[in-house]
């Protein structure tokens, strides 16, 4: 399949043309990648089993991992769920559009393979001009997972999408780099107390300010039996093995030295605070400890950038699991094959 590639960083003439063409392809049951404020999504008509099956095929995604339904505006949510629970109402008001996905009970209007047979659906209103213009133009609910090959780091630029999916999908809208850099927070709103199924762009602290009590699902730890079906698979894995190093800078340096002594080429992915105190030849700065949103923005791109090098191992530091650090560590722990503790 020939994959079309459009530029749409602005909704100018070129952008509008891209959105119209992409919307037409979506209406014809084709699969199109588009930018959102979190990561790029791989969209298809969520009311069509056929269109949605093309997403699973292109990504190589297991069919028991449900997809998020993207809508242009919060007013449309009622069309696809049985009820909007009080907790959902609060979250919609506070965070939509934005990097939040709410789980509600489906009324059956969405194709069965979107929900992987569950009676619930995940709904998100992206806060991105191109995404919202595309959704408005199709006037369809659009099922969209992250637009990467299943198991790889999520795409935060159109080039990442191109590298994974060129030739497998109908088109890619290049809207420039995404903002948040990590996926949306997934919150189950079907019960009285909201349950966070995946930490993400909206932090636990932000959610609690609006909802009061909040439950963090234990299944977000890799070892534990998953509740959201997508949690049991390997995720975000770079092509080069990633080790997390939990210790001070002297310990970090000793790990580099040990691996280099064994003849390994070591890549290092750390904050600017650590870079200043480490010595090795393949170092990439991921952001600053003083503002972890910078780490979130660059995480997936930095992981992918090691594919083009000849390093044998990537070493990365760990971050405090508070604020956006919770989501960063959730992704790093899933991506890593080892944790080296001091
Ligand atoms: O930021 C995002 O959420 C991005 C952009 C493209 O919107 N999308 C994304 O989709 O990350 P995906 O498919 O990579 O992750 C969706 C997550 C999975 O963990 C899945 O299991 C969960 O949402 N999910 C979807 N529907 C669900 C449901 N009905 N019940 C429980 N979990 C659900
Ligand atoms: Mg994904």
Entry keywords:
5-stranded parallel sheet; 342 residues; 11-stranded mixed sheet; 2 domains; alpha/beta; 30% helix; Rossmann fold; single chain; binds magnesium ion; DHBP synthase
Query: Describe the biggest sheet?
Result: 11 strands, mixed
The count of helical stretches stands at 10
Radius of gyration: 20 Å
Number of strands: 16
Question: Into which percent range does the helicity of residues fall?
Answer: 25-40%
Unreliable sequence segments? 222-232
- The global form is globular
CATH architecture of the largest domain: Alpha-Beta Complex
**Broad CATH class of the largest domain:** Alpha Beta
Going by CATH, the homologous superfamily of the largest domain would be: DHBP synthase
- Ligand names: threonylcarbamoyladenylate, magnesium ion
Write out the strand line-up for the largest beta sheet, numbering strands in chain order: 1-8-2-3-7-4-6-5-9-10-11
What integer is the average pLDDT?
A: 93
Which oligomerization state do the chains in this entry correspond to? single chain
Give the SSE order as H and E letters.
EHEEHEHEEHEHEEEHEEHEHEHEHE
Using the coordinates shown, work out and report the CATH topology of the largest domain: DHBP synthase
Count of discrete structural domains: 2
Q: Into which percentage range does the β-strand content fall?
A: 15-25%
Give the terminus-to-terminus CA distance: 50 Å
